[in-house]
## 1
Amino acid sequence: MTDTSPQFFVFLPQMRMTLETLVARAQAAEAAGFDGMALMDHLAPPMAESQPMYEAITTAMWLLARTERLTVGHLVLCDAFRHPSVLARQAVTLDHASGGRFELGIGWGSVPDEFPVFGIPEGTPRSRVERLGETLDVVRALWSGEPVTHHGEHFRLEAAQQQPTPLGHIPIVIGGSGPRTLELVRRHADWSNLPIHQLDRMDDIRPLIGDARISLQNRVTRIPPGADRAEIEGVARKRFGTTGLLVGDDDELVAQFTELAGRGVERFYVWFTDFATPETLAGFGEGVIARMR
């Protein structure tokens, strides 16, 4: 029988935590039954620029090396930070090192203010989307293992070839909801990650994305049995606001995720407002994930 239950990934920005803490969170998520984990990709933490943060690709490799089953990816890598020839090889390296547990999540840049700070060519939103499309063309061509000649607006390759090829199929996740981005989803992606504020447009977006499946990122506040709900919810709303925030005990969260799954969401990226403590991961695994499978 085919499992039609939704997938659950932990979204865990790799900031304000040591590498040892990140590994502990990843291992706790794996033990709790999560399908995967997603990191962020910035040159400085948004709105917390002075805080410590680890680089996205290197951190993914470290977490893949310290887990056995968990899929690891990003929401999402910023296209402008890497040449597609480098990105293609990084992705295949992670794919081989992990036995096929890496996913390529990519977008065209959600925080353009960091571009001039770090000397990254900014461009217009239109040019960044066009660059992303060209990146995906180049990456997928290089993954074939055949020589690639590409003369584009942003990149030029002359009989470029990369070996090895992926072990199988490296899934591609594209974030965003604009018409040009959704066209890239239709052409290239396995998953379309919708911003939570675009949830009401899901029925309109679905016909535009071809065979791609829909994922959604949700901020989640789990109320453990016997806990002070008002205190926990108050801290969460102070830290994260109310947009896209799911709050509840296990019964309430199961009901909320079931409703969203019924609307066609097949994967949830869960951003816990307590920064995914091992206790929260274990409790969510037992009280929500296990009950939805």
## 2
Amino acid sequence: MSASETIKDVREHPFLREFPEDVVDRLVQLATIREYEAGARLCREGDLADRFFLILDGGVAVELHAPHAGKRRIQTLGAGDAVGWSWIVPPYRWQFDVITTQRSRVAEFDAGQLRELCDREHTVGYLVCRRLLEVLARRLAGTRLQLLDLYA
């Protein structure tokens, strides 16, 4: 895949939809494209949340350590999804493990650089935080449905 195709993939990611072109430009400049084999760990619960990911291709499992039960998969995410909100909320520690379920290509953002951009340019910060809230709301609704199914 060419560099211009990869940049186009990042620019067209659903997380960035409806963002003004100048905001997308600034965010794309911070993105580093990474490829991971199946079984790669993107983050570990409790570690420093120093990155944010947009999944371009492939998929990941979001897992949680349950006392006396071990790791539990709570979500599976794929192309078009965003991974990670812990980077924006102090104390900046991952709340979950995230492991690739298949070969995956992601746009990876350095959390420090992204927070700095959001702090410096309030329009960018507002748009990113609003979109993260949308992601969290969808994930919370999905978790609610899982709990209803579990206890029904």
## 3
Amino acid sequence: MSTFVLVLENDLREVSQIRKTLKHDGFELVHCKTVPEAKDLIGQFGFQLILVDLVLGGGDSSLDFVRYARECQPQLGIMVISGRNTVSDRIAGFQVGADDYLPRPFDDAELAVRARRLVQRVQGRAAPPEGLVYRFSGFTLDKRRRTLCCRNGEPVRLTGREFELLLCLVESGNRVVRRDALASFICGRSWHVLDRSVDVMVSNLRCKLRAAKPDEMLIKSIRGVGYCFGTRVETLA
């Protein structure tokens, strides 16, 4: 079953890339270029997520639309995507009702993970969260309980950031995730080339996974880019 996403964006190249990125996760995009179009569409589809470019041009106010959408549909997930990434810009987005703020340039895998998580959060607003469970290479990762267990049920002790790192890679569908995207997603800050914090976290996580399963490299390095998850992941209900 498709998840309908309204994309308010006037750059057709950006829309094409977003569509390509999200289609693998069952997202069906409905695109519009202006705020009046978006207001007309918001009541026509069962949207669970809206992606809004902060700078549209032509006098349209994206922030006004975010406020309008939040008032019309309180349960809706709203993500602002923008090349503007000052603290005041992010605060303004959150103040009018945005749930998430993703600055450009962004990693495709990060957009996919954030979109999935936001939709899951939206679904959880109307019902108690059931969580998701992933299984791979004899491990079971429980997103709701925030646990990782071996085949015999023995827990693997992870720090909070190690768990977030593993979850991000697992949910990226074997796509490569750049170091800067991982730093933004896990640490909540920007990354620069001399920052080794992500590499250190990956190294520590690898050691813990190898201790439980020494014959398999689950996290692959992509030289000069980042990391990807290197095995098949099964999603359990």
## 4
Amino acid sequence: MTDKIIAQKDYESSLMIRHAANAKRISLKIDATIRRGVLVLPPNISEQEGLEFAKKNKKWLNEQIARLPPLVPFHDGVSIPFRGKQLIVRHGGTTRGLVAFERDQLIVFGRQEHFQRRLTDWLKDQARCEIGRLVTDKSLTIGYKAGRISIRDQKGRWGSCASNGNLAFSWRLIMAPDFVLDYVVAHEVAHLAEHNHSRAFWNIVRALTNHTDRGRIWLKHEGLQLHRYGK
């Protein structure tokens, strides 16, 4: 499967062309995570044919993109979720290197032009700390040692486990309720023992967390909202 992004004046956003060897027909869908239309092409269909198909459906495509919830940039006064609770973020002045809680507010210090980066870095640090703690606890429980832990801005998945035991997680999980983060970490740690989604795998997940079903349901219905923040 290969992806290619093209800019088209007919569309509200760039269109991603995806060549999929197992696709049976042309399809057009919206990927709300990347806020783009995705044109899926089977092997026997050219890009030109695909673009003609997309052009015929541009009204539907543009309407769907327009219906996506608005982005929420990080700025003074913005409300963001943190561990499932809404916080108002305020700029606290030019003192460097400090982010502090004050009741239901998060105060970000530093130069105004660095506000977004500083807040993003702080959220990543919080994610790294909490995820690291959970990985350590859960991997000890099943007797497997995790490799390197990476905190990324993954679009297609919330976490991943490589064959060498390295784990990767989306920093945006720190905005979700704690039970969601607990479930995702349990899911990836379970892959250290079972690199599949067999019954044995799910038995391990359920042994590592009490929030398997609740976490999966929350991510299915609410997870995309986390990608709105900090653009």
